[in-house]
Amino acid sequence: MFENLPGIIPSLDVEIGEARRVVEEIKDLRREICGLKIGSLLAWKYGLQRVVEEMKKTSDFKFPIIFDAQKAGTDIPEMTRKQVKVVADAGVDAFIAAPQGAGSATLAAFVDACLEHEIIPIVVVEMTHQDFDAFLSGDASEKILEDALERGVEDFVAPANKPERLKFYKNFAEEKKKGIKIFSPGVGPQGGGPDSAVAAGADFVIVGRAIYEAENPRREVIRIYEKIKKVKKAV
Ligand code: BMP
Fold first, then answer.
1. Is 153 a domain residue?
2. CA distances from 80 to 93, 167, 205 (A)
3. What's the N-to-C CA distance of the chain in angstroms?
4. What is the domain range of residue 90?
5. 0.90 cut: is pTM over it?
6. Which residue has a Cα nearest atom 8 of ligand 1?
7. CATH at 147
8. Are 51 and 21 a contacting pair, CB within 8 Å?
9. How buried is residue 188: exposed, middle or buried, by Cβ count under 10 Å (0-12/13-18/19+)?
10. Top mutation candidate among 128, 144, 169, 224 for ligand 1, by most atoms within 8 Å of CB
11. Comparing C-alpha atoms, which of 232, 225, 233, 228 is closest to residue 29?
12. How many domains would you assign to the chain?
């Protein structure tokens, strides 16, 4: 489903009318855009199913929809399974979990339920904000990656604004002979560069404000794409 790399995943953390406007402007950019990320703000306000339907219709059903509940996969395994079913039933194609603090049984429930309901599990290994691990043990991120790899997860979120960490995760998976795809937020206002993220191993950059707050989101998408394409060619 996420094959056309490198690419951009706009993060639509805006009102529904604004999300429609952005998607209308970029929907023919099929090389540049690889999916649309919708999140808790849209889902809580308008209902997940309605948002998924509107984004699919607006984009002429061209892009997979990733749901980022900001952040799911943190509850008991039984609840996590039920959450995955609700998300899959709403028409979502891929679901992001951040199991930091939730444990292995929750991660297992998340992955199993995603596979059962035929949606793609995406797992956050490390977050972009600086003290994301204040309450975690030092090697929590590696443990999450290792556990998820053993469960067959191939898609991960790692920070664009910490390229050395991103590279570490990509290499960690490669050493275990696992090909993974990395979705990378933290570009623009959070300090990361799309090109340095791709150079470090990101396959897709997740970009929110830098696109939806741009005067011309379409031009911004093309500009970001030109940057990451150059890096990918050079790698
Ligand atoms: P922005 O490009 O405006 O900073 O938005 C980043 C998006 O990526 C937000 O939806 C945020 O929830 C998400 N995100 C993040 O910023 N850091 C992470 O570690 C994981 C995320 O999913």
1. yes
2. 17, 29, 26
3. 23
4. 7-234
5. yes
6. 185
7. 3.20.20.70
8. no
9. buried
10. 128
11. 225
12. 1
